[in-house]
Amino acid sequence: QVQLVESGGGSVQAGGSLRLSCAASGVIFSIKTMAWYRQAPGKQRELVATITSSSDTNYADSVKGRFTVSRDNAKNTVYLQMNSLKPEDAAVYYCNALVQRSPTGTIFSYWGQGTQVTVSS
């Protein structure tokens, strides 16, 4: 099995910064794309940022220029640096990873448990 454990959430004032981490562990041959999603109360889960195994990145328009996604392949970890936070960024943030558990194995999608980000105005 594969586990994703997120950390780094918390409460900040508008304009502040937070850095989220998500570490994958378990039986892992390779991790393909890793991503961050978020879900605010009463809203659908939305994609925030993605990063491929070769570190190509993509961002939601709402976070471009403020958030930076990165990964450490040696540690099976993805990060989300969030700067200039706004109240509308408040949500539960989830990481997602597409994991191949053996050289010829199927790629499965795994999710973390979520970490709360609160931004006060």
Percent range of helical residues: under 10%
Largest sheet: 7 strands, mixed
Distance between the termini: 41 Å
Q: How would you describe the shape?
A: elongated
Radius of gyration: 14 Å
- What proportion of the residues form beta strands (DSSP E)? over 45%
- Number of DSSP helices? 0
Summed over residues and divided by their number, the pLDDT gives a mean of 97
SSE-based structural type: mainly beta
Order of helices and strands: EEEEEEEEEEE
What is the number of beta strands? 11
Low-confidence stretches: none
Helix and strand topology:
Blueprint: E1 2-7, E2 10-13, E3 18-26, E4 30-39, E5 46-51, E6 57-59, E7 67-72, E8 77-82, E9 91-100, E10 107-111, E11 115-120
Name some characteristics of this structure.
single chain; elongated; four-stranded antiparallel β-sheet; 121 residues
Fold and architecture overview:
The chain has no helices and 11 strands. It is mainly beta and 121 residues long. Strands 2, 4, 5, 6, 9, 10 and 11 form a 7-stranded mixed sheet that branches. Strand 7 and strand 8 form a beta hairpin. The chain is elongated. The termini are far apart.
Q: What's the gist of this structure?
A:
With 121 residues, the chain is an all-beta fold. Helix content is 0%, strand content 59%. The chain has strands at residues 2-7, 10-13, 18-26, 30-39, 46-51, 57-59, 67-72, 77-82, 91-100, 107-111, 115-120.
